[in-house]
Amino acid sequence: MARKVILDEVETKFVNLLDDFSRTLNPPVECRIAGGWVRDKLLSLPSHDLDIALSIPSGHSFAVEFVNFLKTKDVTTGSVGRVAANPEQSKHLETGTTRILGLECDFVGLRSETYADSRIPQVRPGTPLEDASRRDLTINALFYNVSTREVEDYTQRGLTDLEKKIACTPLPPRQTFQDDPLRILRCVRFASRFGLKIEDHVMQAIKEEDVKAAIATKVSKERIGIEVTKMLKDDPFRAMSLIDNLGLHPYVFTCEVNPPRESAICSAQILRDLVNKGFHIDEILWLATAVTPFGDLTVKRKGKDVPAASIVISEGLKLSTETKNGVTNLFEAAKIVNPDATVRSEVGTWMQNPCVKPWQRSLTWSAVMEILPGWTGQWDQNAEQVVQKYEQFRRRIEESGLPDAIDIPLLLNGTELQQLLSISPSPLLQTIRQALNVWQLDHPEGTKEECEVWLKGMWEGEGRAEWEKNSQPKKIVKGEKRKR
């Protein structure tokens, strides 16, 4: 690993301009690019977000003056935004944000932090060492000095840890994590992203009950959700394994029920083994492994039973409705799948069910759910038989042309059905449309005329009575609570 930062053409121009401007000030301002950008550059990874740490308190005022300086050089910039570290007590420590030469830049003064009972610190101006010490990991505590063009390692081990792939905190880990428990999840994320070994004493600190319990009491659900989402983008299985090994699952994936958590890592192991077997894998599936322990549970919301898995996603992680539905639907899709089905319409109507779409994802999850009850931790004959069954099912789907067929409009629209059968709009019409959909799936070459002949025949024969029966409202059994 290189120990010097190699700048590209844009970065070189930016650094030169920043250095030139900082030297014009009286006294000159020391500028350092901090944290993730330095780490990524040393690893030869692309990075376009720059945190510029300054030897003066206000990053906002510096950014405003720098942008004005750039305008005299005909350099296009964005407007300067303001982020207050603490609106009541630290207005002199405001961060300035802007876009320069296509680079997202945050300007902020070097700082020191002290914590009381929350993860919101009391902030004051600090030295480079104090600023480096407040960061989550040593590999994220490196500086690039804009004036000297050198990497600065004030923790005395950031470069070595990056080279040896070690996750270690700048300060004693218990202090680091108690100050801000979100750093625990960041440690997991960076360890999984970069393949880092978390040092033993760091692991032990995370496993201490009061340390990990603070995740649930001191960190907002939104921040937990953001970190979980990020860790699923790189090496999700490693992230899930670390969460399991560190005993973090009950503190990250939460609602009012607290089931045994073993099925989470088991389903993750199965999904990992399916990656190389041609199955469709995405972040929604990895998130589903995390909430597998909640898959059969419900909780009460406004008097109704709601899937506990959906509550973990929407309330425990504050993720989007789309994500919540995507995960929750997987468990419903797995309950109604029949991988042995050979009738084209049976398979097609399963694929058309809203909870099944996209069908490739549901197929993968259904295989995971079928393997899970007999899972021993190792891929075995039972798992292989299940996979073979689902692979055959997938081939039947593709060979039958169903992926395209399920989205083809019905041969007759509602108005045409009413005219053909001389009926008025009613629930019966929807029942007939469902029957037409089944016929169309079973007769992929059928024409509109053939469809009309079949419909007329069914209407004048045995089909009418069945359709009328199926379109009747469900009778409420005596004693059953009426749903509003």
UniProtKB/TrEMBL annotation:
Protein name, per record: tRNA adenylyltransferase
Membrane spanning residue stretches: none
Similarity comment: Belongs to the tRNA nucleotidyltransferase/poly(A) polymerase family.
Domain tRNA nucleotidyltransferase/poly(A) polymerase RNA and SrmB- binding: 195-253
An example molecular function term from Gene Ontology annotations: ATP:3'-cytidine-cytidine-tRNA adenylyltransferase activity
Record keyword Aminoacyl-tRNA synthetase present: no
Cellular component aspect of the GO annotation: mitochondrion
Keywords assigned by UniProt, alphabetized: Nucleotide-binding, RNA-binding, Transferase
Biological process terms in GO annotation: tRNA 3'-terminal CCA addition
Superkingdom of the organism of origin: Eukaryota
InterPro entries: NT_sf, PolA_pol_head_dom, PolyA_RNA-bd
Organism listed in the record: Kwoniella europaea PYCC6329
Signal sequence segment: none
Boundaries of every Poly A polymerase head domain copy: 31-166
